[in-house]
């Protein structure tokens, strides 16, 4: 009886004990009990629409007008996918795949809460299916599956933008890397309610890396190199689609004192960008294109498939140079753009050169050159026999694998050098081929060859020697090539 | 079935079938590793016959003369979309320059009907891929980097549908133009689904995704194949595309007819 009674008592007390425990916890951490609900879910996804309009899309470096104070609306937009040949650098063209005919693709500007009805059209002359993955979209693949469209077809899909920020969009059709590498990316901006603070000038700049069969600057239509893309070894790293995409006639301009905002994106496919403007400091950076801002930034890191919004005021007149501060990309691969700022000098900010003079350090100055350098630059005059001997040695290292020991080449793949009309017709052309490489169809001794010979990294002497050897072998015309001739063919 | 057989018989007589069969190539059966699935699992391909060249506009004109229901103005929208034979001037007139070019802007239904009416059929994906591995010199040239490079670059070349058939070098089987001119319909083009979301490693394209991951970076052939599979999976049977034609295949030997 005693025991039963005890149990009953405990039963009566249980609720009180429970109450005590919960009560105590409740006092300590009331917030942790609530599940995390971000604003995108609680407010933006529920946002009411007031009217509808046709969205304005722009090609770089322009951006559509700001959203300002307008309410969330239903936005209609159309984008056409066009595969087209365009200039990559002077004398170099590339088959770009584009959203809206430009690289990067058309700039899309929305505000948070907008409902977008997006029509994607794949031009009938295109050879491949495409689609679009917008990083601003919450949903399956960023719209990738819903927008998968065959050539000559169009598709419409719809999404609500619920997170403010600057987002990349790109094609996501297999092989994804190739579609991105051919230029299929752009930016979509989702402004917060009330819009971004107004500025005087806004620009759209996007970086991308390109992979071509020929090396940087090799002229002609350059096909995409899948191997280089896999190796992440680009020939071109450029702003707005080409080496001249943001310089020369395409340079952007501003006046002294204007506030400037750059919407900067990085399409990749592979490289991250160390974006920097030479001669300017970013007053404000929206880090990674999100809501957090940093101030007084020299260089901002922008990942592939990421973005940043940069704001500054051009204080003095000059050509500001936009670069990827992984600096060989800027000076050797094309990642260089110009923002020309015109107006009155402002000596209070930048006084320029004030004085020049001769610098005389203390102590003795070293007068002798290092020994090894002397040896390297010593000129050598080779006799014809010596040239041929040296050339033969080099041929057996660099050339024989394709052109074979006896100069016969490989049928259907590598053209012969032995008694070769193409070779003998034009020694200057032969020099050019070694210096710049050669691709595309040629006819040698009546047979067509369509393959690629890479440019050879040889000195003038080496080119002269190996060509002299080739010209003195296998029934060729016996021309002697001098280092000077080679030098004159270098541009 | 009877009706179909009759139709086939009728068409054989009507169209001078023997002439058509003469242009077929006999393919020895074998096994190959398709893009999907693990490379350890080879897929068997039985011996078959396949047209040496894609069907041309002129060939297709002969067909629609015989079968009005497949003319530009007569075709049912269910079986071909609005772009069907858009390049043609009218029902029975084709631009002179396109006569010997591969017929394009034909739906799968139309392509299938064309082959059926000759007692043939469309090739399967496996058959098509099996013969498309061949370069001019090798029946399986997938490791020949120059061959794969030339395929990849041809996919980037615009307006190749305007070229004439039969001018490119034939492959080791004696077949022309599998690469370089137009995409081609296959009987089961939609049986392997590369979803619109090409990076999704769940569900239907698991095999594709994994296969691509498992293969070495050097296997560029697979990028070409990927593009073909992506292309096929974007299609519906009524689509009529400017870069898509077809050729026919058959189980029967040309001699047996």
CATH class of the largest domain in chain A: Mainly Beta
Which sequence of SSEs, written as H and E, runs from N to C of chain B? HHEEEEHHHHEHHEE
In helices, the fraction of residues of chain A equals: 10-25%
- Flag low-confidence runs of chain A: 1-5, 23-29, 373-379
What is the name of the CATH architecture of the largest domain in chain A? Sandwich
> Which overall shape of chain B is indicated by the principal axes computed on the Cα atoms?
globular
How far do the termini of chain B sit from each other?
19 Å
Class based on secondary structure composition and strand pairing of chain B: alpha+beta
Largest sheet of chain A: 6 strands, mixed
Number of helices of chain A: 12
* Ends distance of chain A: 110 Å
Instruction: Give the CATH topology of chain B.
Output: paralog of FGE (formylglycine-generating enzyme)
Please tell me how large the radius of gyration of chain A is: 32 Å
Rounded to the nearest angstrom, the radius of gyration of chain B is: 18 Å
How much of the sequence lies in strands of chain A comes to 25-35%
Query: Strand order of the main beta sheet of chain B, please?
Result: 1-4-7
| Count of individual domains of chain B | 1
Low-confidence stretches of chain B: 4-19, 200-218
Oligomer: heterodimer
């Amino acid at each position: 009886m005693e025991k039963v009674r005890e149990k009953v008592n405990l039963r009566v007390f249980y609720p009180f004990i429970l109450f005590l425990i919960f009560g105590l916890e409740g006092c300590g951490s009331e917030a942790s009990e609530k599940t995390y609900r971000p604003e995108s879910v609680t407010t933006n996804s529920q946002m009411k629409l007031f009217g509808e309009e046709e969205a304005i899309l722009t090609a770089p470096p322009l951006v559509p007008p700001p959203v300002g104070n307008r309410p969330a609306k239903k936005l209609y937009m159309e984008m056409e996918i066009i595969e087209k040949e365009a200039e990559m650098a002077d004398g170099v063209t590339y088959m770009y795949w584009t959203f809206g005919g430009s690289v990067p693709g058309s700039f899309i500007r929305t505000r948070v809460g907008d409902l977008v009805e997006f029509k994607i059209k794949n031009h009938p002359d295109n050879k491949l299916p495409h689609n679009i993955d917008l990083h601003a979209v919450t949903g399956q693949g960023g719209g990738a599956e819903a927008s998968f469209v065959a050539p000559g077809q169009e598709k419409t899909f719809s999404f609500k933008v619920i997170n403010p920020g600057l987002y990349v969009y790109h094609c996501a059709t297999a092989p994804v890397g190739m579609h991105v590498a051919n230029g299929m990316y752009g930016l979509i901006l989702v402004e917060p309610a009330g819009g971004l603070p107004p500025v005087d000038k806004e620009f759209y700049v996007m970086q991308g890396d390109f992979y071509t069969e020929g090396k940087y600057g090799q002229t002609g239509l350059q096909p995409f190199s899948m191997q280089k893309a896999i190796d992440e070894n680009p020939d071109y790293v450029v702003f707005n689609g080409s080496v001249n995409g943001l310089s020369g006639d395409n340079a952007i301009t501003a006046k002294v004192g204007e506030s400037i905002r750059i919407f900067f994106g990085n399409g990749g496919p592979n490289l991250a960008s160390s974006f920097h403007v030479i001669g300017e400091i970013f007053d404000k950076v929206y880090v990674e294109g999100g809501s957090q801002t940093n101030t007084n930034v020299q260089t901002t890191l922008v990942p592939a498939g990421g973005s940043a919004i940069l704001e500054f005021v051009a204080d003095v007149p000059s050509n500001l140079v936009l670069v990827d501060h992984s600096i060989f990309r800027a000076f050797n691969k094309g990642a260089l753009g110009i923002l020309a700022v015109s107006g009155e000098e402002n000596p209070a900010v930048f006084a320029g050169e004030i004085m020049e003079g001769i610098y005389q350090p203390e102590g003795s100055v070293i007068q002798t050159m290092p020994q090894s350098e002397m040896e390297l630059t010593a000129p050598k005059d080779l006799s014809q026999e010596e040239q041929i001997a040296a050339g033969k040695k080099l041929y057996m290292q660099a050339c024989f694998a394709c052109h074979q020991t006896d100069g016969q080449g490989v049928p259907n793949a590598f053209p012969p050098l032995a008694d070769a009309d193409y070779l003998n017709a034009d020694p200057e052309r032969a020099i050019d081929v070694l210096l710049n490489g050669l691709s595309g169809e040629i006819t040698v001794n009546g047979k067509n060859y369509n393959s690629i010979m890479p440019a050879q990294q040889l000195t003038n002497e080496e080119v002269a020697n190996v060509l002299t050897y080739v010209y003195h072998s296998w029934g060729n015309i016996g021309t002697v090539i001098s280092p000077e001739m080679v030098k004159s063919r270098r541009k | 079935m009877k009706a179909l057989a009759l139709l086939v018989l009728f068409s054989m007589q009507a169209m001078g079938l023997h002439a058509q069969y003469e242009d077929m190539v006999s393919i020895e059966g074998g096994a190959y590793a398709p893009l999907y699935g693990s490379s350890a699992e080879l897929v068997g391909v039985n011996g078959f016959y396949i047209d040496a060249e894609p069907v041309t506009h002129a060939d297709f004109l002969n067909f629609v003369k015989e079968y009005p229901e497949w003319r530009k103005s007569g075709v049912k929208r269910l079986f071909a979309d609005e772009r069907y034979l858009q390049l043609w001037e009218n029902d029975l007139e084709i631009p002179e320059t396109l006569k010997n070019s591969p017929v394009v802007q034909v739906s799968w239904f139309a392509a299938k009907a064309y082959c059926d009416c000759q007692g043939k059929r469309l090739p399967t994906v496996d058959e098509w891929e099996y013969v498309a591995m061949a370069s001019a010199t090798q029946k399986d040239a997938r490791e020949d980097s120059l061959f794969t490079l030339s395929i990849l670059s041809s996919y980037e070349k615009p307006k190749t549908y305007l070229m004439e058939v039969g001018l490119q070098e034939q492959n080791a089987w004696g077949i022309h133009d599998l690469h370089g001119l137009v995409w081609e319909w296959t009987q089961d083009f939609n049986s392997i689904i590369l979803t619109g979301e090409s990076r999704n490693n769940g569900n239907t394209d698991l095999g594709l995704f994994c296969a691509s991951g498992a293969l070495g970076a050097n296997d560029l052939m697979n990028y070409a194949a990927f593009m073909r599979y992506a292309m096929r999976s974007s299609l519906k049977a009524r689509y009529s595309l400017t870069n898509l034609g077809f050729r026919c295949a058959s189980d029967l030997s040309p001699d047996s007819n």
